[in-house]
Amino acid sequence: MTHRYRLGIDVGGTFTDGILINEDTGGTRIVKVPSTPGDPSVGFLAAVERILREAGIGAADVGYLVHGTTVATNAIIEGKLAPAGFITTEGFRDMLEIQRQIRPSLYDLLFEKPRPLAPRYLCFGIPERLDASGSVVTPLDEQAVARAAETLRKEGVESLGVCYLHAYRNPEHERRTREIVHEVFPEAAVSLSSEVAPEFREYFRASTTLVNAGVRPVVERYLSSIEARLRDAGFKGQLLVMQSSGGVLTFEAARTKPVFMVESGPAAGVIVSAHLGEVLGFDNILSFDMGGTTAKTGLVEQGAPGITKEYEVGAAARAEHGAKGAGYPIRTPVIDLVEIGAGGGSIAWVDSGGVLRVGPRSAGADPAPACYGKGGTEPTITDANLVLKRLDPDHFLGGEMRLDEDAAWRAIEEKCAGPLGLDVVAVALGIVEIANSAMVGALRRISIQRGHDPRDFTLVAFGGAGPVHANRLAAELDIPAVLVPMSPGTTSAMGLLVTDIKHDYSATLIQRTDALDPEQVDRLYRGMEERGRKALLAEGMGHAGIGFERHVDMRYVGQSYELSIPLDDGGAGGALQSMLRKFHAEHERAYGFAAPEEPVEFVTLRLTAVGNIAKPKLRELPRGDGDAAAARRSVRQVYFAEAGGFVDCPSYDRYRLPAGGAVEGPAIVEEIDSTTVIHPGFHAGVDRFGNLLIRPAR
Questions:
Q1: CB distance 224 to 193 below 8 Å
Q2: Which H helix or E strand runs over 652?
Q3: SS3 for 638?
Q4: Of the four, 2, 29, 114, 268, which is 20 to 30 A from 528 by CA?
Q5: 5-69+224-261 has which CATH code?
Q6: Mean of pLDDT values over 270-291
Q7: Where are the domains of the chain?
């Protein structure tokens, strides 16, 4: 009998992870191969080939493959967007130059705005005008559109974005513009603001559309290359890609709307955290994903990941995530993440003032940390953990890669300890603690600064380096428990396989709640639902597997920012009082105050069309006697600051830990793709699925 398998491939900055699930048995197989930053598809295909070979199956046995990728984000960060043109309403061609008045650092006189997404000579103002209701004030000048398209063709652009004023109300001028452009310049990829981000606020809509236009040829080439090679290898299943909001898109949909997948990789980690929480009974979760290049934190409240529409992409935005005005705003749903440059490969260095610093620069996959023996000479967090003996040089990646302890020691001594005049071990501890401090800051930003108390949450730690640091972070923030899933190094890849197909739609409707037209609201929602149902049916979903989630962006009249509130069943009319109560409560939580006596208005209607996919089951461990002693591998000296230095520390083979087993700290738990460090004063229990739950010792 031929088994049906699901395959998830997550391309990270240092490693490309693969996870293969047998749909019949729930059995999993994992693989990690070095990423290939020059061409991510090489690492992707290497992971696919290896995991299929090791499983002894063919590509035809895989039912569907889901891919998490940073190719769109990397194109923006590295400035490798395709040449794009911009068509807008006459008088507004400088929109991309002007951008916004805000800046990320108020008193930074040397701050430079991000480079415009399209240079001014490739921006064209077309005589046309719609009013705020969508009525035509000035008809579209079709000959001006044709002239602009001809000029863009001669200039060699590959793609262009169209953003007319108030096109979110009436898309006819934009659609006609695309028809004209295709007549004059048929090879151009045209992105319309009314399709990509049909919302008010012209610059945000234009920015989202231009980001889509710029990454579209890059993503199209990447996905087409992967698809062609997979089909040649005999793969006949469905190809899906993770999107920023936590759903998956077909390759076909991702080719036309790649802006929806700019945070494709990191989103999977938050989704799998929510899935684990649902299965294990934890409603409130802080996800902590520390890989080789970055550390990412997300928040799940009452089983639902936080979603934001206030998101920026770009090099500066990556360095200081969330700094408004540092990057290009995009108005598509993105899982709310705080990301910092603190991964296992983050480089430690001494600045001009003689202060030890860590990151944001990373050794990545090439040249990699010094201890990898690939020619790297810069000390990294991984090197520091090796010097502190928290990593076993002989059991890294299950013994597949031997770590060079001498190279790690030498790198820290030459680059940091020597210049500082300090002991190598003391500096290694300093590197780890500085990184921990940065990660505690990230966890504070995603929780406390969003109005949440971390003491009410469980920390789910994964990524190759996450479980090494998680116990210390939880202790710092008084988080009561740390959950370390099986195979944490490939947990993000698992997240690709536990999510549903999703399409997001929005419609601007600015109306006060005391003058709301419920029929208009329902009519707009029904229209979006029809588009969503049509898209999901075209992608092979059955009617029974299709569902819809409605949200409304609401604000007090006069405000310029909104909060997203779920719309209860029963339509806008019956649910209005309930929604107002939820809005006031959410405003109180988010901003510290509410004003129930003030008038409230709807701003944007949002709909998510969901195609439900059967979730793979977690595999249960066989029942044992609960004695962890048989899993003990060895005892070695490991450095813990709270113990005053190196202390005897047993190491355990995670695959031999039984359900119901307990491990007392200090202890190290090792597996192929990660190492879990349990500090003195803590203990870890093993649940029936093999997850480790670390709590303070009683």
A1: no
A2: strand 645-653
A3: strand
A4: 268
A5: 3.30.420.40
A6: 92
A7: 5-69+224-261, 77-219, 265-342+436-495, 346-434, 501-611
pLDDT digits (tens, 9 = 90+) for 23-36: 777 778 888 888 88
For residues 419, 422, 426, 428, the Cα torsion angle rounded to the nearest 10 degrees is: 20
Tell me the C-alpha distance between 185 and 195, whole Å. Answer: 20
276, 270 in Cβ contact below 8 A?
no
Distances (CA, A) of 169 to 173, 198, 364, 516: 11, 8, 46, 17
Q: With contact defined as beta carbons under 8 Å apart, do 509 and 603 qualify?
A: yes
Residues 6+ apart with CB under 8 A from 475: 679, 682, 696
Spatial separation of the C-alpha atoms in residues 27 and 377, rounded to whole Å: 40
The one-letter amino acid code at 209 reads T
Q: Are 227 and 251 in contact, with CB atoms under 8 Å apart?
A: yes
Angle at which helices 424-446 and 405-412 pack, to 10 degrees? 80
What are the tokens at 388?
Answer: 């502190």
User: Mind listing the pLDDT tens digit for each residue in 256-275?
Assistant: 999 998 888 788 889 999 99
Q: How many CB atoms lie within 10 A of CB 247?
A: 23
> 265-342+436-495 adopts what CATH topology?
Nucleotidyltransferase; domain 5 (3.30.420)
Residue 514, pLDDT > 50, answer yes
Alpha-carbon distance 432 to 385, whole Å?
Answer: 7
Distance from C-alpha of 515 to C-alpha of 198, rounded to nearest angstrom = 23
Residue 318: pLDDT band (50, 70, 90) is very low
